[in-house]
Amino acid sequence: MSNISEVDFKELEKELKESIKEDKKYWRENDAKLRAVNQNVSTYEEFRDMVKAAHLKPLEKSERLGADNRQKGCIWNSFVDRKPDLPPLKNMEIENVLNDIRNDDESVTGFRYVRKFSLLRTNEERYKLLMKTGTEELGNIFKTEIPTGVLGRIVEALLCFMPAVNEIIFVTQVLEILSKTKRFTITLDFLTREEKDFCSKLMGKLDESLKDNQQDLAEQGVTEWTITTLRSKYKV
Q: Which ranges of the chain would DSSP assign to H, the alpha helix?
């Protein structure tokens, strides 16, 4: 009960509102990207401006432009002031834009990633998603906090790692990044007994994997002390 009383609900509410705001911004800009591609915009500058203007709403009939905008020669719509001599988008640039749209939902932060991670059916699939996301992006996604119930699933998914040097390094880096999130201690306290067992099993598997790759891992900064430190942080 003491842990619950330490939670700053006003701060949580503020962070939730910010997450919702960012989520809405993402979908506005993503829709603008799709519209730009469907309309076959001729230049990258036009594509960029459409995305930047995604938050703008069209004027209603009852609305009137200000006096400054009625002045002769004043252009209120940025899309009117377009340079006609800008080079057209190349096929490769268009493909890059499309790839950016397709991959956007895997690189953004917040609840959307957590939802996608949780909906995957197997731990192997979740582990592959974690690997594909990478440690840097995972750090950005969970820099504020780890949502309730997610830490246990991540640890369970990490148990799928193979005893290869690159995967051992990846797992230790993910565990280190997660341990630096805000309210991590409280998150640990809310783990179920089964989830705590996952943490213990993961540390044990790391210990075993370390034995066959000590020299290679030591060169990358992963040693027995690394695992011991992680055990302490995860209280196992």
A: 2-5, 9-38, 44-52, 91-107, 111-119, 123-133, 135-141, 150-158, 165-179, 184-189, 193-211, 214-219, 224-233
Check: CB of residue 3 under 8 Å from CB of residue 188.
no
Q: Is the four-CA dihedral 197, 202, 203, 204 of positive or negative sign? A: positive
Kindly report, residue by residue over 157-213, the tens digit of the pLDDT: 999 999 999 999 999 999 999 999 988 988 898 899 999 999 999 999 999 999 989
Output Rg (C-alpha) for the chain, integer angstroms: 24
- Taken in order 174, 179, 182, 188, the sign of the CA dihedral is positive
The pTM assigned to this predicted structure is: 0.56
Backbone angles phi, psi at 172, to 5 degrees: -65, -35
Rounded Cα distance, 48 and 50, in Å: 5
Each residue's pLDDT tens digit, 54-95: 665 554 545 544 545 555 555 444 444 444 444 444 455 445
Alpha-carbon gap, residue 158 to 172, rounded angstroms: 10
Whether 91 and 102 have beta carbons less than 8 Å apart is answered as no
CA distance 107 to 188: 26
